Amino acid sequence: MSAPLTFPVSKSLSPELLHNNIDSRVVKIRPAATPLDQISRFAGARKCSSMQVEFYSARMKDPSSEVTEAVAEQKRIQQGNVVNIKVKTSSIFSPSETIVIPAATAGGKAVVGYINEIEGTTLKLIPVGTYPYDLPAIAVGAKVVRMGRAAGELDVQTSIHTTLPNKDFNLCQIFKTQIEESFYHRLADKEVGWTFNDQEEMAIMDMRLGIERSYLFGIRQRLRRPDGEEVLLAGGIWNQAKGEFGYSAMTGETLNAMMRKAFTNAGGSKRKVLLAGSGLIEKLSNLEHQRVVLSSETTTHWGIDFQTIVSKFGTLYVVLSEVFDMCGMPDAGMVIDPEYLTKYVHVPLSAERISFRKQGVRNTEAVVLTEASCLVLRYPDAHMRIVPEA
What we know:
Blueprint: H1 7-13, H2 15-26, H3 35-43, E1 45-47, E2 52-57, E3 64-66, E4 74-77, E5 83-86, E6 97-106, E7 109-119, E8 122-128, E9 133-135, E10 143-149, E11 166-171, E12 173-182, H4 183-187, H5 196-217, E13 221-224, E14 230-233, E15 243-247, H6 252-263, E16 271-276, H7 278-285, E17 298-301, E18 304-310, E19 315-320, H8 322-326, E20 333-336, E21 341-355, H9 356-359, E22 364-377, E23 384-388
Parallel strand pairs: 1-21, 15-23, 16-19
Antiparallel strand pairs: 2-11, 3-10, 4-9, 5-8, 6-7, 6-10, 7-8, 12-22, 13-14, 16-20, 17-18, 18-19, 20-23, 21-22
C-alpha cells in the first residue's frame, strides 16, 4: 500500500492486531482477582457478528430412567414373551437396546431385558435368562439402565441414534470504563508518582471485576431505559450450569462426594477449575491431607497459581474468587470445565483516546475502554454449582 501506516489504517486492515496487544497487557493486571475473565481471555474468543449470540449446547443421552408403574411378579415366562414396563423418559431408549434393572434380581442376578418395541412410555421387553423365566416384582422408582445394542445376524439396519443439541442464546453486554484527567493536573508536580497510566490500571481492574460478576451472576435481559435506549445484559454461567452439589459440613467424605459429582455422569475433562469463595476455601483448607485427596501441590495455568486437589475421579485446580465474597456467597463455589467454556466477542476490548480539550468541551484528556462480550457453557452438564445447605 502507498499510504502511510496509521492507527485507523491498521485498525481497518487488521483489527485484531491492536486488540491482542491490549488483551496481553490486561491479563497481567491482578489475574488471580478475576480468574474467570482471565481464563476466558487466555482461551481466546470467538468473534460474533451481532450482539445476540446463538449457540448449541450438547447433552449426552441420559444413561437411565425410572419405572413409573409397579410391575407384578410373573412366573414361567417363555422365550420370546414380552413384558411391559412403563418408564419416566422412554425417549432415551430405542428398539434393539438391552437394559438392566439393578434393583430387581432373579436368581441372584439383576434383571436384564431386550427392548423389542416402544409404545409411548412403555418399553416392551423380552426378559433375558434361563427359560422359563421368573420375573421378580419391580417397584416404582427402580432404575432402568441403558446397555449396548444387540443386532440379529441378518439385521442390516438398526434404530437411528439421534441426539439433537439444544439451541440457546446469550446477549453481549457492552462493558465500558472511562478515565479522565485535566490538562493542568497532568502538568502539576505530585508528591507521589501517580500518573494517568496508574489511573488506567485501576480502572481496568475495576472493569474486570465488574465483567467477572456479570460473567458469573448476570441475568440475560433486554432493558429499555426511560430515554428509549435499549441496554443488553449478558447472562451469567452460574445459571447456565446443570449440575449442583449441596453440602452442610465439609468433611473428607463430603469432598469425595463433591469430586464424584463433578467428574461422573457428565463427561467433560478430568481436569477442571474450582472458583471458590473464602469460606469454602477455608473449609477445604481445614481438611486433613489424605491418601485419596491431596491439596498440597501448586500449579500455574493462565497466569494464575492454583492449589490442586487430586482424586481418583479427577483433578481440581482451586483458586479463591473474590466475586463470591463480594456477592455475599463466601461458602459457595463453582466447578467449571475450561474446555467447554466459550467467550463470544462482538466488540473486542479496545481503548479510544479522546481529547475534550481539543474539542472545546472541557480541559481534559480521556481514555474510554470498551468491550462487548458474553460467556456461554457449550456443555452445561460438565459444570457444577457448589452451594451450602442451611
